[in-house]
Request: fold
Amino acid sequence: MTQAPVSGRFATALAMLTLFGAVAMPVTAALIWLFWDHLAPLASAGLPRAYDVTSLGAGARLAGFGLSLLGAAVQSYGLLGVRRTFLEAAAGRPLSAPAVGGFRRFAWVSLTMVFVEVVQRTGLIAIVSASDPNFRGALSIEVGTNELGGLFMGLLLVFVAHIFAEGKRASDENAAFL
Reply:
């Protein structure tokens, strides 16, 4: 099956963007925690309270870095999966096993990230509040409309991945019949 040049170029551009994102996520997580004194306001902007984020010790920074890196690594893994889908589409094989598998991996990672992000935010609040004398030992577990929206999108992607797999199965069956 041959792709039109425009869709092939678009798929190639998307593959490059997803590679950039897969590399940028862990690098950004590392930079935030390595340069915490300067970047802390950016990292803590989504927290429910105004914590004193400048008082973190080395252990707390290491714990925060590990927590952030975990989420970034999971997201990068998903992006590398969908990158394979884009590369296969650019090569004219949109229903190949690697394309379908890459999209399926991305879909499941997208769904998983809803829960990982709740754990990350909860962990970050616990880490930051342990060092803040005003809110010592706070714990906040939040599940709201953003998480419900992410859950819906994750489930939608998993459903599309199953349809994608069925399309591959039907294509393989038709090819074997002919």
In short: The longest helix spans residues 97-131. The chain is about 80% helix and 0% strand. The mean pLDDT is 85. The radius of gyration is 20 Å.
